[in-house]
Amino acid sequence: MTAEIAVLNGAGVALAADSAVTVSREASKIYLSADKLFQFSLNAPVAAMIYGNATLLGVPWETIIKCYRAKLGQRTFARLEDYQRDFVRFLKSDKKMFPARLQAEDIEISIVGFYAHIRNEFMKNVAEAHAQGQQLTAIQNKRMFTSLVKDELEKSKKWPSLDEMSPKRIQEMRKRYTRTIRKCRADIFEELPISQDTGRRLVDLAMEVLTRRRLLQGGTSSGVVIAGFGDEEHFPRLIRMQVLGIAIDLPLYFVEGHVAVETGREAVVVPLAQKEMVETFMEGIDPKLREMIETSTGRLFTQMSSIIIDELKAKHPKEAVALKRKVSAGLDALLAALYTEWTSFRRKGYTSPVMQMVASLPKDELGAMAESLVNLTRFKRRISNEQETVGGPIDVAVITKGDGFVWTKRKHYFAPELNPRYMARVIGR
Hints:
This protein has helices at residues 61-72, 80-93, 100-131, 138-157, 167-188, 196-211, 276-283, 287-315, 317-359, 363-383, 420-425, and strands spanning 3-9, 12-17, 21-24, 29-31, 37-39, 46-52, 55-56, 59-60, 222-228, 237-247, 250-260, 267-273, 395-400, 404-409. The protein has 429 residues and is of the alpha+beta class. The mean pLDDT is 88. A 5-stranded antiparallel β-sheet has the order 12-1-2-13-14, covered by helices on one side. Strands 5-6-9-10-11 form a 5-stranded antiparallel β-sheet. Helices cover 52% and strands 19% of the residues. Helix 5 crosses helix 6 and helix 8 (287-315) runs antiparallel to helix 9 (317-359). A hairpin with a 4-residue loop joins strand 3 (21-24) and strand 4 (29-31). It contains 11 helices and 14 strands.
């Protein structure tokens, strides 16, 4: 995990990222020297940050971004979206960096992971049935598994498709990876009762998962943030993209969102990855606490209305039925109005005053705020009993239209004074 912040106002955009990276989920090994913030172009005011998976098909994002930067050369684009599209084209074109063998291995890992999830759900359902005293026959097990696969298939179809995922591309992926999918199915479900129809559905399910955003739940995707200015843009913009892998030489990705400052009087704060401390600072309440308060309030209203209706039912059944209809119709609207009032109070009392100040921050304070917000999350992790998945030096850069990309704080894995030739070679970067 990580903590990253983007703070935008009319003057520019400040980006800050911690240096923690988890390299082994099993051993929970954490290093505090990862680079997550990069200059995207040597000639344009554009930067990139990465979070989530630090590699794509095993290739470090640092390598990918710096190779793209070299290929970009002197070229610049009119709009920030053009940099994002050109970067996707670069991922498509570099077959040496992402050979077919690596693509097939990554697809297999994704399918095995999802099929293992299905198998675990099935085994959990069987265990629950046994705990309730049911003795399931082979036919009942088969029906239970068939029903589970049907439900998962329908659930997957409700997820949005990945970007550029055309029917033709889906057919090409199915043709290329059907053998891999069947191998994964045999390895994971070898002892389970599977009919021919269910076997076909499992292939369909794998294709749905690979071509939709559901795979994002697996935690293996990489977040890529591109921020700065196009040649024709006077105020900063930010684009968030999720990259889940590469298949048939094409990235499995989608653009998650755009943020733009349209005037010199606006400001935006964008927390990435671990967001809870930033949201607490901006809204005056921890998001999980807010959710619990709203849920418990709704439950309290529902329970109180049930108590009143039950009391009335004993003496006046007809009136109780009529009252229940009125309460059911009005309770949701009352709760929605209450939550809206709470949101308005948080916005007026906490969020808006902060954003008004952010809109007027000069460049140096913009970077200081971004760093401080990352520090909030790092401090919370340090004093809690949770793993310190946010830590290490904080890299900070400020990007403005006039000055371009400027480091205000940057770590090195070496002593700069011992490497004068390196420092001279990269001066300005």
